[in-house]
Write a structure and sequence with these properties.
Length: 242
């Protein structure tokens, strides 16, 4: 595997990539993001409806995985079914898209430019300007799944969940939750059960809690998170209505 560094948006300096070991370097923010505020009544969170306005007419088939690049001041996202990577600057109002060689379910920003992509064929480095793809590892070989939702932790590890391509028909729990470790680029499963459709992967402001939803269940769970251990302490965080 090629030696490389890897980053999500942040203001702190990232660790320098080692020259003898494949390494992912995260550039974490030194200032915690503000925690979402929920209005609680009788111990229950109340949902406030928000209004949305059209910012860009991009005609995506399935727009997913928005990721803000702090350094560039640009929003990146995927049109999964359209096999495109998009960018948009809210300041200049300029947008751009790149054709991807295959379907990607999620991505992360790579330090120094480029991306780590969750392609159907596996996790790969991708340079949109040249189209170059360097495969890091295979992903759930032999299963009818693909990478779906994914996020970086504060140590530079990439946590990514899967999608059962036929889950609406077969309802099989065959998808897994994985972590691509910063040191050595090893891929390990971190959840002790399988599911159908990974979504809502997010960390709290401490980085010690991870949120996860298997979409068909309509339940968001919170876990205790360690960058070196499997998930533990499963707790129901929110259950969505019909």
């Amino acid at each position: 595997s090629p030696t490389a560094s890897f980053a999500v948006c942040g203001r702190a300096a990232a660790a320098k990539a080692q020259t003898d070991t494949p390494h992912l370097a995260l550039a974490p923010s030194t200032t915690p993001w503000p925690a979402p505020q929920l209005r609680l009544r009788g111990g229950q969170a109340t949902v406030t409806k928000l209004a949305a306005e059209l910012e860009l007419e991009c005609a995506n088939l399935l727009g997913e995985a928005p990721m803000w690049h702090e350094g560039e001041g640009v929003l990146y996202w995927l049109d999964i079914n359209g096999k495109k990577l998009w960018s948009y600057s809210p300041t200049s109002k300029e947008s751009k898209s790149w054709d991807l060689p295959e379907v990607a379910g999620s991505f992360a920003l790579r330090e120094g430019g480029g991306f780590l992509m969750g392609f159907v064929s596996g996790l790969s480095w991708y340079d949109p300007e040249t189209g170059k793809v360097d495969k890091v590892c295979d992903y759930e070989e032999g299963l009818n799944t693909r990478p779906n939702d994914g996020k970086c932790d504060r140590q530079g590890n990439f946590v990514i969940g899967s999608y059962n391509n036929n889950h609406r028909q077969d309802e099989l729990n065959i998808a897994g939750l994985w972590r691509l470790n910063a040191e050595g680029l090893s891929l390990e499963e971190i959840l002790d059960y399988r599911f159908r459709c990974s979504n809502t992967i997010a960390f709290d402001v401490t980085g010690e809690k991870l949120y996860f939803c298997d979409t068909p269940t309509k339940k968001i769970y919170r876990f205790d998170y360690s960058p070196t251990k499997p998930l533990s302490g499963k707790t129901l965080f929110y259950e969505m209505g019909a």
